[in-house]
Amino acid sequence: MNPYMSVWSMATNLTDSFPQYWPGTIKAFVGMIRIDGASYRFMSTAGDMAPPIQQTSFKVYPTRTIYEFEERGIRLTLTFMTPLLTDDIELLSRPLTYITWEVASTDGKAHSVQLYYDNTAEIAVDQVSEFVVWRRVPGYNLNIMGIGTASQNLLGLSGDGVGINWGYAYVGTPSTNSNGIKSVSSVMSSATIARQTFVRSGTIPNTDDMRMPRACSDDWPVLAYSWDVNVVPSSSSSSTIMFAYDQVASIKWFGTPLEPYWRHYHTSIADLMDEALGQYESILSRCQTFDTQLLQKANQVGGPKYATMIALTYRQTLGGCQVVKSPDVNSEPWYFMKEISSDGDVSTVDVIFPASPFFLYFSTDLLKKLIYPILRYANNETTVTYDYVYAPHHLGTWPIAYILSQDQENMPIEETGNLLMMIAGIAMKEGNVNFVYPHYWPLMQQWADYLITALPDPGNQLCTDDFEGPIPHDANLAVKGIVALDCFAFMNQILGNSTGAKYYSEVAQNFATRWIKLANPDQMNHYRLRYDEPGFSLKYNLLFQKILGLKTFPQTVFDQEVDYYINSRKQPFGVPLDNRHLYTKLDWESWIAAISSNKSQFDFFINSVYAFADQTPNRVPLSDWYDASNARQQGFQARTVVGGIYAKMVMPSS
To answer: Which residues pair with 21 in a beta bridge?
Structure first.
């Protein structure tokens, strides 16, 4: 999967809107069903289509979303499955989603049923004025069609909300008939002609429209399928569509185009789709088992509302990432994360950081693959020179990994602390520091020594919450640097360097003691937003102390802060990020929940983010930035940082 495939239904009912790319751009996928001569649509909104079928339910699991519809004695079940299993890098790298429909009789009678699917070329263009071409792919026991731009400006667009306009979108379905299906037909046609023909007759045109190239919006060419099904009371009928996207190239790494990693295993997208179809039943079983076990664990750790949030955030976290073939001789997989919905940057460190509990829980190997390209850049192993003593902010603008030092959005303590804490988390889970030792150990040492020079007062540095404006003498940012120093002491201890461990631990402890006085000079019942004036902020940067079992700050700091948030600052949908605004961040609230001392405190924060997700009036991919007083989105959506909800899952007590 990759960020260009971050496509969502932005409505409760699948028939209330067209699917949309995360910024809100329509990427039309259409589904219709004809039951005993009456046509209905089950996916996408009106226009040249039939009235909506009644949707009776939908359920979101970590790897699947399942809709159910009923009409005229027929139940239609529609399952979207994207098998993003973190323990299988080959499967994770596949740019493929299964769409499976199943129909069954609910009234004990036989029915004549036809089904229809299409997608336009919108998924393969940035602007609908772009010219597209389409084709069939022969040679497999699959009915495969593909569509993409005529120009194929490979890796030619960069930015946040832009769409892809290179590579090709493909759909495939079994060519042979089975399971009660009397016939499978396909056509490359005008959307209006294909859809209206189906509504009238239950069939689609039998001749491909070959007027190309033409604009995506010029009579809207579609790739369409239809099935004729004999539904009898004793059994159900089903078939599966595979939607896949061949980017050809995914990331440009300092001038070198990098291929998507699935090409390490497959010669073509058709080869991948052929194998994926043959593995469908086993992959479905794996996804069902994974979903069940994960939600059982989440329910055990945090209760049913927590489990729901775990399900909601799983694919969103992984959907902003992509596995590629590295430029090295062995083509090892690298992993990149897009900073969706803010700057569109490549592998922003303070976007990886809030999502890091997800990766620490599921796969330190994936977290290492995310961090490794950043280490390469910071260690001057690219074609440009990085000349700062602290960690970089990001690697470029998606999908172009290329940035000069002077173009960095410098957050020295922020990013240095983030990387040291995440690498220490990896060391804790793996029991060694082999990821960074010996090659990157001097870099770790350099970063830790920089933090010593910058603390305990961060001055006027930027932090990850820069959208709020400057926070001089930021107490929470200081916490990050101090805990990160203790994390480096922890790494030294694992390495067997007791002298280094003692030194950095003592420095961190000294800074923590000074912090307590600087951040609470009036000895109030909470600690300040900034050293030099009264206020408060969520001290989410304490989390990694708990994850690693360190003793950097005393437990009283945790207890005072969380008690104050709940007793003095709570709003209907959580606790504001600080005293300047009523808005908050879902990821940081989840981190505070994880460091809470008891179940009632944890439940308060999780119930708050659940209430936001359930009651927000903004029907968008889950936002992480919202008003705690009314649940209204303030900005940001579809971002990977929602992986922060997994913080409780990586706590030692879990």
So the answer is: 7
d(CA 466, CA 464): 5
Q: For residue 120, which phi and psi values (nearest 5 degrees)?
A: -80, -175
Cα–Cα separations (whole angstroms), residue 562 to 482, 520, 526, 579: 19, 15, 9, 15
Q: pLDDT by residue (tens digit) across 141-167? A: 899 999 999 999 999 999 999 999 999
Distances from the Cα of 356 to the Cα of 34, 448, 541, angstroms: 46, 20, 13
- Strand positions, DSSP E, 250-312: 251-253, 256-258
Report the C-alpha gap between 512 and 304 in whole angstroms: 37
Dist. CA 97–CA 31, nearest whole Å: 16
Angstrom distances, CA of residue 642 to CA of 283, 365, 591:
25, 20, 11
394 in Cβ contact with 348 (< 8 Å): yes
Given a cut of 50, the residues of the chain with pLDDT beneath it are: none
Tokens of 170: 């493909």
pTM of the model: 0.96
What's residue 180's pLDDT?
63
Query: DSSP characters for 119-171?
Result: EESGGG-SSTTSEEEEEEE-SSSEEEEEEEESS--TT---SSSPPP-SSEEEE
**Helix or strand (DSSP H, E) at 7:** strand 7-8
- Give residue-wise pLDDT tens across range 126-141: 999 999 999 999 888 8
The values of phi and psi at residue 489, to 5°, are -60, -40
CA torsion angle 104 105 111 113 (round to 10): -30
Predicted pLDDT at 175: 86
